[in-house]
Design goal:
233 residues; Glutathione S-transferase Yfyf (Class Pi), Chain A, domain 2; globular; Glutaredoxin
């Protein structure tokens, strides 16, 4: 049985969505990021980088969300083509998410939501880059149902981030093809189940609604603690 070490973050959701889509049995181990559990020695043996998510598959540890997705896809033969060109198309868009969408949205979150002081040039910089990346996705999705043709791990990884656009202070509605794609993945039962893992995922869901100010404040405070902890590493 696969052990999933995770928390309610976009990177964490990537793996739980994939596990649900692939119908793999797994058990969830929630990592309390605000208490620094990810920095404890036992977890660093699984993930030397001290970040979630990570998995153990019969004692074999895999860390980094993109690497986990590729491992699971190759293990099951699902959501990653085996021909060189088809595989490359998926990997290109997966790397686009890993190197672009995730980091830029993460920085937008930090400066827009978590830093107590609002540094407007930084907010503008990262929100602007998120919009640019959304434009790239929108153009690709104008001619493709999914990012690399068929539904793949690249779609799972990217959707788990772009669905949180409002938390970064960016509206996704103007990107009509991206919005169509968002709705299509959100309608998948496995994706719906995946974003409920772990059991505290409701906190992010409330925050993303942007209607519960108290939920927003508490979620941002917890995230700020994690950001500050990361600065001390």
């Amino acid at each position: 049985m696969i052990r999933l070490y995770t928390a309610a973050t976009p990177n964490g959701y990537k793996v739980s969505v994939a596990l649900e889509e692939m119908a793999l049995p797994y058990e969830v181990h929630r990592i309390d990021l605000s208490k620094g559990e990810q920095k404890q020695d036992w977890f660093l043996k699984i993930c030397p980088n001290g970040r979630i998510p990570a998995i153990e598959d019969d004692g074999f540890a895999v860390f980094e969300s993109g690497a986990i997705l590729v491992y699971l896809a190759e293990k099951t033969g699902l959501f990653l083509p085996t021909d060189a060109k088809g595989r490359s198309r998926v990997m290109q868009w997966l790397m686009f998410q890993m190197g672009g969408v995730g980091p830029m949205m993460g920085q937008a979150n930090v400066f827009f939501r978590y830093f107590p002081e609002k540094i407007q040039p930084a907010i503008d910089r990262y929100q602007g880059e998120v919009k640019r990346l959304f434009g790239v996705l929108d153009r690709q999705l104008a001619d493709h149902e999914y990012l690399a043709g068929d539904y793949s791990i690249a779609d799972m990884a990217t959707w788990c981030w772009t669905r949180t656009a409002s938390w970064s202070g960016v509206e996704s509605a103007p990107f009509v093809h991206l919005s169509r794609w968002h709705a299509a993945i959100a309608a998948r039962p496995a994706a719906q189940r995946g974003i409920e893992v772990p059991d505290d995922a409701g906190a992010m869901r409330k925050a993303l609604s942007n209607t519960d100010e108290e939920a927003n404040r508490k979620f941002a405070e917890e995230a700020r603690k994690i950001v500050e902890m990361g600065k001390r590493d």
